[in-house]
């Protein structure tokens, strides 16, 4: 446990090294240090997990080697071909579609704490690098990846895979902000991590692998509301934090690239649809609990919760 905590501090140090430099060599070095620090965090002493660590190491090493070679060549002659290879290496590291296969392979064998690190802090260095080397024509690939990740999640109920595909969708928003030279992507990533942490915390506590009512029934009322609200926030439903970060991103992008916003909004609506579809059973369970429970609740709390539920059902009705 102590060793894993020390490795987490090493990850934070590599992030600070990367964001404090403008040298491509330091970027590469910080990514390699970050890779070697994160692998022990993934370890949970199972054979399947060992396979996942090997896959993660190979993919990250390949993308780092591609980044090193392309950056060196781009430094020598500033060719756009090598600039596109730099971007390609970073997109592989970020697991953007169609390079997401490796992260889906390791989804079932890493614990939720490692998954949280993988979907939040591990994205900081690649996103910072791509903000320095972004190649504008690749914006089309990013938008398609954002849309396809939302469509791919429609029939899934595994929480880890849902969170991964949701993360790919949110990455698309951040990279679109980076493409338009808007620094709000840093705030977006911090807000996304704040939304993701309670979900990971609850799923770890109750050992939830699937979005099923039998799993969610183990939670108390406050935890159930927190769990539901955070998923709604990931989808960008008002009045949650996820809505405000997306509406701010839309406002900033509207000044430069309006067609881009349409695809991002469609992706967000698809996310909301399958979140509603999965969580509808828990809404009914919650109302049944309020009806049959003999516990004394604060009237103000009940009023706020019922207004919250009414808002969810109204939007759910409009989606169907």
UniProtKB/TrEMBL annotation:
EC number: 7.1.1.2
Protein keywords: Electron transport, Membrane, Mitochondrion, Mitochondrion inner membrane, NAD, Respiratory chain, Translocase, Transmembrane, Transmembrane helix, Transport, Ubiquinone
Organism of this sequence: Dermacentor nitens (Tropical horse tick)
Keyword presence, NAD: yes
Entry function: Core subunit of the mitochondrial membrane respiratory chain NADH dehydrogenase (Complex I) which catalyzes electron transfer from NADH through the respiratory chain, using ubiquinone as an electron acceptor. Essential for the catalytic activity and assembly of complex I.
Family: Belongs to the complex I subunit 2 family.
GO BP: mitochondrial electron transport, NADH to ubiquinone
GO molecular function: NADH dehydrogenase (ubiquinone) activity
Protein name from the UniProt record: NADH-ubiquinone oxidoreductase chain 2
Stretches assigned to the NADH:quinone oxidoreductase/Mrp antiporter transmembrane domain: 80-270
């Amino acid at each position: 446990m102590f060793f894993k905590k020390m490795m987490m501090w090493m990850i934070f140090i590599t992030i600070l090294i990367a964001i404090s430099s403008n040298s491509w060599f330091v970027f590469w070095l910080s990514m390699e240090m970050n890779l070697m620090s994160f692998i022990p965090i993934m370890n949970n002493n199972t054979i399947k997990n060992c396979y996942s660590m090997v896959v993660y190491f190979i993919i990250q090493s390949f993308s780092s080697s591609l980044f090193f070679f392309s950056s060196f060549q781009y430094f020598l002659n500033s060719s756009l071909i090598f600039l596109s290879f730099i971007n390609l290496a970073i997109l592989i590291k970020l697991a953007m579609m169609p390079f997401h296969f490796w992260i889906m392979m390791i989804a079932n064998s890493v614990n939720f704490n490692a998954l949280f690190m993988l979907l939040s802090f591990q994205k900081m260095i690649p996103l910072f690098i791509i903000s320095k080397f972004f190649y504008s024509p690749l914006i089309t690939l990013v938008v398609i990846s954002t849309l396809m990740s939302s469509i791919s999640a429609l029939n899934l109920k595994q929480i880890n895979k849902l969170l991964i595909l949701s993360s790919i969708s949110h990455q698309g928003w951040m990279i679109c902000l980076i493409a338009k030279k808007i620094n709000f992507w840093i705030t977006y990533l911090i807000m996304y991590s704040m939304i993701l942490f309670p979900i990971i915390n609850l799923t770890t506590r109750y050992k939830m692998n699937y979005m099923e009512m039998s799993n969610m029934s183990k939670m108390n009322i406050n935890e159930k509301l927190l769990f539901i609200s955070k998923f709604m926030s990931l989808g960008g439903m008002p009045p949650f934090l996820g809505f405000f970060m997306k509406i701010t991103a839309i406002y900033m992008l509207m000044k430069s690239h309006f067609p881009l916003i349409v695809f991002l909004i469609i992706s967000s609506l698809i996310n909301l649809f399958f979140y509603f579809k999965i969580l509808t059973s828990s809404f009914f369970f919650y109302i049944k609990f309020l009806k049959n429970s003999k516990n004394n609740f604060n009237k103000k709390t009940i009023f706020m919760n019922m207004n919250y539920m009414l808002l969810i059902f109204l939007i759910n009705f409009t989606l169907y």
